[in-house]
Amino acid sequence: MMAISTEKLDQLRAQFQSADGGTLFTEKYQRVAAKIFSDGGRRPAPYAGLPTLLDAPYRAATQLQELQVALFGAPMDLGVTNRNGARFGPRALRAIERVGPYNDALETAPLHEMAVADIGDVPFQSRFDLAQSHKDIEAFVSDIVAAGVLPMAVGGDHSISHPILRAVGRERPVGMIHIDAHCDTGGSYEGEKFHHGGPFRNAVLDGVLDPERTIQIGIRGAAGYIWEFSDMAGMTVIEAKDITALGIDTIIERARAVVGDGPTYLSFDIDSLDPAFAPGTGTPEVGGLTTREALALIRGMKGLNLVGGDVVEVAPAYDPSTNTAQNGAQMLFEILSLLQFSPSLPQSYPQA
């Protein structure tokens, strides 16, 4: 094997030996480094300062002006049917030290190329009242939508998606990319229909979610018999057992065809991942997606007309490794990255 030539080594030394970590020479990397690094290769330490979602700047929920995307927490798990604890999900994701800032697959640094802020948590009026909590979420998100800003939520249990959809789908029903172990289109259980197993039946019946523009990916477990609503309403359901045979590219193609170019919501339940990757959740189901498959699915939605999204069901008490929160934060980052390419991204403010 030939050693590197003296000429090549001299060239590399001349170019790189005195260059700091923020000095890059490829044009697409220069663009990113100029936003992230300051003089001398300095950048903020990911473990320092007050924790926020994805290390986004904090802004009060009353200060939505000049934002394009609002990240927020919905720490509520009054709708769970199994293990609780997802109320601690937003706090767990805020504690993750480093995700991003550059998305190499989508070639964007979303926190530096959009006006994004963590606007805190929904101010719930009661820790006991599920119906009131859903009203609080709908009012909070309605303010975001009225300001022309795209909402990105962290739950909380999956019942939070229903009031969010009531806000984003109020003017016209939206389509949905739904990545989950469960269809969440069940009916009333023990007198309660607004639990985390039924938000998308409720959203369809409210006229804010278009079932024929909805695809549900990763579905599995022993409860398929309670989700007949998905089929009867016209939703496209991709079961986990069929993912390998179909292939990720085929599923992406189908998803894009289902939602088309209309306004679309993206909901990611962490239990879509196999418990090997995300044990910290209320209703784990074996046989789920790998993190690599989930990343590929999300990234394949680049360019869709996304109007918001969520990551839900992270319950950190069941995950001493913090892997579930780490993977939840990564999926949040991936969905945020997609919003930069959405036709619905507000363009009335200069990009940060």
Average pLDDT, to the nearest integer? 94
The SSE order reads HHEHHEHEHEHEHEHHEHEH
Kindly, what is the distance between the CA atoms of the first and last residues, rounded to a whole number of angstroms?
48 Å
The value of Rg in angstroms is 21 Å
Helix fraction bin: 25-40%
Structural class: alpha/beta
| Strand numbers in spatial order across the main sheet | 2-1-3-8-7-4-5-6
Strand content: 5-15%
Written overview of the protein:
By secondary structure, this protein is an alpha/beta fold. The N and C termini lie far apart (48 Å). The longest helix is centred in the middle third of the chain and has 17 residues, at 130-146. It has helices spanning 6-16, 27-36, 89-94, 110-113, 130-146, 161-168, 199-205, 228-233, 243-246, 248-259, 291-299, 323-339, and strands at 69-74, 116-121, 150-155, 174-179, 209-219, 236-239, 264-269, 306-312.
Short account of what is shown:
It is built from 12 helices and 8 strands. The protein is an alpha/beta fold and 352 residues long. Strands 2-1-3-8-7-4-5-6 form an 8-stranded parallel beta sheet, with helices on both faces.
List keywords for this structure.
eight-stranded parallel beta sheet; 32% helix; alpha/beta; 352 residues; globular; 15% strand; 12 helices
Secondary structure elements and pairings:
Layout: H1 6-16, H2 27-36, E1 69-74, H3 89-94, H4 110-113, E2 116-121, H5 130-146, E3 150-155, H6 161-168, E4 174-179, H7 199-205, E5 209-219, H8 228-233, E6 236-239, H9 243-246, H10 248-259, E7 264-269, H11 291-299, E8 306-312, H12 323-339
Parallel strand pairs: 1-2, 1-3, 3-8, 4-5, 4-7, 5-6, 7-8
